[in-house]
Amino acid sequence: MASSTPAARVHVQSPQTAVPTRAVEPGRARPIAVASPPLPAAAMQRRTRVVLCYRADAGVGADGGGAARGLWEEAVWAKESLSEAVADHPEMAGRLRRRADGSSWEVKLNDAGVRFVQAAADATVEEVVAAEGEDRARWDAALAPWVDVNAEEPDMCALFYLQLTRFHGDGGYAVGVSCSLLLADPLSLARFLTSWARTHAKMKAQGELATNPLMQYAGYFQHPGAMAARPRTSSVPVAGVAAETVLFRARATAGQPGAPRDHRALAGACVAQLASERLGEVRVPPRFSVVVVAADGGATGGMSVETCAADGEPWRGGGGECELEAAQWQELGLDELVLGDSKPVHGSYSIVVNGGDEGLVVVMPDGAAGEFLVAATVPKY
Fold first, then answer.
1. Global pTM?
2. Average of pLDDT values for 17-27?
């Protein structure tokens, strides 16, 4: 058992769809401006991956196993609150499509919903939390699944996946999320997940969640050992390439208020700083894509995608309009995301790219005018 890969030890038991509880207003869309059409197929697979692990004994009281079982029941009902959260954030259920002009793209807001998956893992939460290096990456990929967007029919493909995985033994579980960068940037994704947790807590407090599990889960909770006898329907593949993502906070320098005139210069400065700080571990890519999120935000706020070549080094030494400082994934607040009465005991965050030597920079407005959170991803050696 210990020698099996994480992908072979995570088994999908119930793939579902969480649809919005309210209809989406027709005609709404989030524009995506592409500087050099067509949008490459690899760009459709880039995504943010988040894995949060919860230990059941975090809330165990005198009843012992009863509290652990209650934590998992809380997670089972996440689908209901997720549907309500998606209704408040309809862009999260959107689908990617080409616009009528044939050269630009958009995320069409609709009622298609988000993918919600229940799974079981033949591992304890302690084993997964302790994983490091390549093993850590494999567990993250198995706990936060993704199905590649079909470049020919992207409007038929989900862009957001949330998987709840119950660990073996003590009832701990993981929340794994994979979200297309064309749907939401990491900062917007974090805000959505925080909103979902608040919605879940509110519905629970108001008694809007059912007090008993659905029939398909009743047998499991009455007989926890049934998990071992239940047939494994499928396994989760590992995807992605070796890359390093570092966050920066960029603030406008004195005398340069507002957004920088050239986001490419800001992106290039972040790539150069990342390469210098990780000398010998990562390399400056020959080209990199720059994704700039519109400052207006909201469900219909757009983004732009542009590819920059490093050959002429027009960006090296750029970013002078902004001051850069290192930022941490924990600043997104997901380490405080509470389900039930529990906070995560482990959080893993990454941007997954499926292209060999190309870098990726995501520029996200955050807070006051002229302040940005920048995620720079470059290949490892």
1. 0.85
2. 91
User: Which of 73, 71, 68 is CA-nearest to residue 169?
Assistant: 68
Q: In sequence order, which residues have a C-beta less than 8 Å from that of residue 33 and are 6 or more positions away? A: 104, 302, 303, 304, 305
Q: Report CA torsion sign: 216, 222, 223, 227.
A: positive
Measured CA to CA in angstroms, residue 267 lies from 64, 168, 249, 356 at distances of 51, 43, 12, 19
Q: What are the backbone angles phi and psi of residue 53, rounded to the nearest 5°?
A: -105, 135
Average the pLDDT over each of 117-121, 156-160, 174-178, 351-355 and give the range with the smallest value. 351-355
User: By the 8 A CB rule, do 51 and 344 touch?
Assistant: no
Calpha distance 269→277 (Å, rounded): 12
C-alpha 198/C-alpha 113 separation (Å) is 19
Task: Centre a 10 Å sphere on the Cβ of residue 42 and count the other Cβ atoms it contains.
Answer: 15
Q: Which among 131, 122, 107, 149 has a CA at the least distance from the CA of 51?
A: 131
Nearest to 197 by CA among 92, 337, 93: 337
Instruction: Flag the least confident range among 38-42, 133-137, 223-227, 315-319.
Output: 223-227
- Residues 94 and 31: beta-carbon distance below 8 Å: no
Give the containing element (helix H, strand E) for 117.
strand 114-121
DSSP state of 230: S
Question: Within a 13 Å sphere around the CA of 211, how many CA atoms are in the beta-carbon half?
Answer: 3
Structure tokens of 110?
A: 């609709």
Q: What is the pLDDT of residues 294-328, one digit of tens each?
A: 877 666 678 999 888 765 454 444 455 678 899 99
CA-based torsion, 125, 131, 137, 142: positive or negative: negative
As a whole-number percent, the residues of the chain with pLDDT over 90 amount to 43
Q: Which candidate, 33, 41, 154, 180, places its Cα nearest to that of 103?
A: 33
